[in-house]
Design goal:
The structure holds two protein chains of two kinds. Helix content of chain A is 42%, strand content 14%. By secondary structure, chain A is of the alpha+beta class. Chain A has one domain. In chain A, helix 1 runs antiparallel to helix 3. The longest helix of chain A is centred in the last third of the chain and has 30 residues. By secondary structure, chain B is of the alpha+beta class. The radius of gyration of chain B is 26 Å and the shape is globular. Classes of the chains: A alpha+beta, B alpha+beta. At the A-B interface, helix 1, strand 1, strand 2, helix 2 and helix 3 of A face strand 1, helix 1, helix 15 and helix 18 of B.
Chain lengths: 152, 580
């Protein structure tokens, strides 16, 4: 995550707990945003991988354990799946989304190694997107904290 | 072994709180933004007061709309062999014979609160205005070329005539003849929301729509045998009336097309017969955590209830909103659409100053709406719904802003001002209208320090975009056709501060138009359900507008229904736990 700075209002004064709450809420929000975008990259898939948010103080990790998603995200050196002639992929590199595509896997054979899967780098694209948008999310969480202070 | 195949970590590496934060912020565009937001505040407040009146009008129009459509249910009203209400009761779009066109069967047959189909208040007022100018009285609002079939198989036509597929209503036709203005051509008129469409779908209704020679039948849930009979009959009617293309779509809750049959009456009728049948009623059917039965449940009109209980049965809570008996009556748990419908109705009764009678599993009683809410736990509904064109005040503000930007950019094209003057004025307008949007969203003319910082942040981002745009203009050899549209597109960016204000600065993960594929065209909104004001528990629903089908919005709707905020004003003040 890129370094970011946000405006802290002078009034009302926010104590350390309030700042930490704002930070935790920011992390939660950004993790949710990231999870949504991961979901978007698999929206047209038949069997959609599950993405999980794991939460620890100061850290949120959004991940999947789905092998196929890993192959696509990272790319592979070689591909053993033989695809149909009309196959067009649902996803493309750096695109946070998924199209309908066409065709599909015919069979898997280690006798026919083929050029590997192009890395889609979903994680990188999503990170770049939310690096750019994170400051306004964090700012909103600080504003929410001020709003909370006014309510309570 | 770490099985994680793809992961992104969001974390805080260091937290540095600077003293004198405002001066430490060096980024030039954002510094300018802060200064401009402060300088433009008085003008923004004046704009807020001007556009706030639109908001008031919108509320009045909403009440008018409800007044127009709510009528007592009359079980003795004559129907035809298909169970439809005849002329005067049906929603024909105006009979050829000049009978009681634009009847009131929505009001007759549908519970109040479920009837706001396809009409924005502006559209309602336009139609009323059109009708009065051509000397026609409108008793009830209608929308052309659509029909709904309730679970009991009753057909509710909404300005639809099988013999005149694709035809406009008589009012619109007369208006066109006399004034030369086609009210249907007005984009406001055609793009009304289907705020309660999903409510009806949730209650097990099937929709039939016709556009020119094409007939589409959507159903989102398993149909009852009565619905299937009605559908098959209607398909025959459409074919006889010249509809040469019939499309049948079966959709799941995520709106994924299933069956898609085109052409051939026999094929479609056969497909209807083969549609997944409705399961028999089973009181032990598992429910979700919201108490929903899943597909098929809902509040249905009294007449339909009788049919359902005698027929194949319908899962879910049965409800009644019948003035002649009790205002609100239900047994069992309610789904969210049901709660929404009841909350809307209770609000209406409350607004009229009437007392309310109710009979629910949590008790029976009579009193004020607040008593009802206390006893039943049904909270007052936050009326925030997705209108694809945005709420009226926001829409009018965007239009005004776009006009200003167009005027300013035209001046640049005509070389009446320099590029620097254009950019400077553009920045001033950005600061003014973003601030106004936040004020409008939060319904106050006071800008708190933190809110000012928030606006400055997003205005500063806009300044950076504008700087790039200005460089493109200055680097261009000649004026390009796309410059004007690009300049106007900045107007839609004020949706983000509007919704930030509208959601009362709750810690929500994203705002409409923020990080979506549809960018500033986003028509979604947040619907905030306050569960416990003291503790600060909220269920926040991402409400997608009908016209919005970008993948980000679809995903947010699926995952954030609801997005839970718990204990916001309590000790923790944090949003939901994310350990899943």
């Amino acid at each position: 995550m890129a370094q970011l700075r946000v405006f802290l209002p002078k009034e009302p004064f926010l104590d350390a707990d309030a700042i930490l709450r704002a930070v935790e809420n920011s992390l939660t929000s950004l993790a949710q945003d990231v999870k949504i975008d991961f979901g978007v990259t698999t929206q047209t898939w038949g069997e959609r991988p599950e993405f999980t948010i794991e939460s620890h103080p100061g850290i949120r990790e959004v991940y999947t354990e789905d092998d196929i998603y890993g192959y696509l995200n990272r790319g592979t050196a070689v591909r053993y799946a033989v695809m149909s002639h009309d196959f067009t992929p649902k996803t493309r590199t750096g695109f946070i989304g998924s199209n309908q595509g066409s065709g599909g896997k015919l069979f898997v054979s280690r006798k026919h190694p083929m050029p590997g899967i192009t890395a889609r780098e979903f994680d990188k694209a999503i990170q770049e997107k939310w690096d750019r948008l994170a400051p306004q999310v964090v700012q909103r969480m600080i504003d929410a904290e001020v709003s909370r202070q006014n309510r309570s | 072994m770490n099985r994680r195949q793809a992961a992104l970590v969001v974390m805080v590496q260091s937290l540095e709180i600077l003293s004198g934060q405002t001066t430490s912020y060096k980024a030039k565009p954002r510094s300018r933004a802060r200064v401009l937001v402060k300088a433009e505040l008085p003008r923004a407040q004046a704009l807020y007061r001007k556009h706030r009146t639109h908001k008031s009008l919108e509320q009045q129009a909403t009440e008018l709309r409800l007044e127009l459509v709510v009528k007592d249910y009359n079980p003795d009203q004559p129907r035809d062999e298909l169970g439809r209400f005849g002329e005067g009761g049906g929603l024909s779009s105006g009979s050829e014979e000049g009978g009681p066109a634009l009847g009131s069967s929505w009001g007759d047959k549908v519970s109040p609160g479920l009837v706001e189909i396809g009409w924005t208040p502006e559209m309602a007022l336009k139609v009323e205005d059109a009708a009065s100018r051509v000397g026609t009285k409108i008793d009830v609002l209608h929308k052309g070329q659509e029909a709904w079939i309730d679970p009991a198989g009753n057909v509710y036509e909404v300005g639809f005539r099988p013999g005149a597929l694709g035809g406009h209503s008589d009012v619109a036709d007369k208006f066109l003849l006399e004034s030369g203005e086609d009210i249907y051509a007005n984009p406001d008129f055609r793009t009304g929301p289907f705020d309660n469409e999903q409510t009806l779908v949730g209650l097990g209704w099937a929709r039939v729509s016709t556009y020119q020679s094409e007939t589409g039948i959507d159903h989102f849930i398993p149909l009852t045998s009565l619905q299937k009979d009605s559908l098959a009959t209607m398909v025959g009617e459409y074919a006889a009336a010249g509809s040469d293309k019939i499309q049948l779509e079966q959709r799941t809750e995520s709106l994924t097309a299933g069956i898609n049959v085109q052409r051939g009456l026999d094929v479609v009728q056969q497909a209807i017969k083969e549609l997944e049948p409705l399961k028999d009623y089973n009181p032990d059917q598992p429910r979700d955590e919201s108490g929903r039965w899943g597909e098929g449940g809902g509040i249905v009109p009294e007449g339909a209830i009788k049919k359902l209980t005698q027929g194949s049965g319908l899962g879910g809570a049965l409800g009644s909103l019948d003035d002649s008996q009790r205002d609100v009556e239900f047994r069992g748990d309610l789904s969210r659409p049901q709660k929404d419908a009841i909350a809307s109705y209770v609000d209406l009764v409350d607004a009229k100053g009437r007392t309310l009678t109710w009979d629910t599993p949590k008790g029976s009683g009579e009193g004020k709406a607040s008593d009802f809410r206390t006893e039943t736990g049904l909270k007052k509904r936050h009326l925030k719904q997705a209108d694809p064109t945005g709420p009226t005040p926001l829409k009018s503000l965007i239009e005004e802003f776009a006009d200003k930007l167009r005027h300013l950019t035209n001046q640049l094209e005509a070389e009446l001002i320099t590029a620097d003057e254009w950019e400077s004025s553009f920045e001033t307008l950005l600061a003014r209208y973003h601030t106004t949007a936040l004020l409008l969203g939060s319904s106050t003319d006071t800008l708190t320090a933190s809110a000012a910082d928030y606006v400055a942040r997003i205005v500063g981002n806009q300044f950076e975009f504008l700087g790039s745009f200005a460089a493109v203009i200055q680097g261009a050899e000649e004026w390009q056709a796309g410059f004007l549209a690009r300049a106007e597109s900045y107007a839609s960016a004020i949706k983000v501060p509007y919704w930030a204000g509208n959601t009362e600065l709750l810690p929500l993960p994203a705002m409409p138009a923020e990080g979506t594929q549809c960018l500033n065209n986003c028509g979604c909104s947040w619907d905030i359900q306050e569960l416990d004001e003291v503790v600060g528990d909220y269920d926040c629903y991402w409400v997608r507008s009908k016209d919005d089908s970008c993948q980000t919005c679809l995903e947010r709707e699926a995952q954030w229904s609801p997005y839970e905020i718990r204990g916001f004003t309590g000790e923790s003040g944090q949003t939901e736990s994310e350990v899943e």
